[in-house]
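Figure S4 source data
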Amino acid sequence: MKIKKLKKIVNLHRYIGLGICIFLVHLAITGIFLNHSIGLRLDKTFVAWPWLLNQYNLFVPEPKNIFTIGKNNFSTIDGEVFFNDKPIFLAEEDLLGASQNKNTFILASSSTITEINQDGIILKKENVLPFTVKNIGISGDEIFINDIQGKIWSTESINDVWKLTNRNDIEWSEEGYITPLNEKKITKYFVGDGVSLEQIILDFHSGAIFQKAGKIFFDIISILLIILSFSGIWLWTIKRKY
């Protein structure tokens, strides 16, 4: 009976030792890489795999209220109005339209009209309006607003007097899409180049990359090390008796 019990403990000791050995090899390999991080340029090499970025809570918020004028995009991302890949002001309301007037862009929300230059700098802003905006449009040098009651208003400057009109040759703003170039720039704005290999290997080394699961795994390894130590001492003591 004692021999059977001894064999079970020996087998338990052996398998735990094998598991710990694999774990120690993992620590040794990642440790070697980290020890030569500068020489291997691990801090200069970046990875931007989507699943990996999710592990680091890095993600690109979904753009909405997208309007396209030529190669330029206007959109609302994460509570800010973006001009291409650059945030230009906080989005207090949904962006409802964007039009180009000569060398400037006119952006409209329900109660505010903003004029910016081609560098995304705000030139004018008007929020005292005789209407609630539904859409914005351009015809010639005039700016037009279609309000929620279906009336059309016009002006030559957003700070001038708005007048009712019956014009029907207006080019109204329409929703568009983020161009591939701006999509790449927006991604870089939110996640940069990704995560460095140095950080990834360090987090593999510590288990932090697996977040809560990594902590639990290291707890299990610690418990197994304790069992391995006590079982080793016990087996050594038994052998000395015999």
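Figure S5 source data
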Amino acid sequence: MNVDSLRPEVRRAVEAAQDKKAAGVTVLDLSGLAAFTDYFVLCSGFSNRQVQAISDEIEERLAGAGLRPAHREGYATAEWILLDFRGFIVHIFTETARRFYDLERLWRPARRIEFPDEPPGARTGATPRGAQSA
């Protein structure tokens, strides 16, 4: 799996998260592993407010493309926000919640793309660190 094989709306969600300085942006390809969605987009924020800002940016960016989440959970507490766009689900965690729930471990058979965290002042866009296969 590589970034070019991702659906445009998944790439948009990744770019929106990166624009809000999300850490550990990762896409898990669940095709053939889960009946309820094709992809997970995972990322972390360093505070509850940043987690909400990442969520807001993803929703705004995708609304501009005519997509709205079918379901949203966790916005008020902002430890783990879930945005279900049906074909893909975005999980935005605080660092502590991400370590605790460890979805990467639970879905370890999934193919993945990990996107690099941007160094201060850099703008790399949705450039993957490298694809990993299960």
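Helices lie at 8-19, 48-63, 95-101, 103-106. The longest helix spans residues 48-63.
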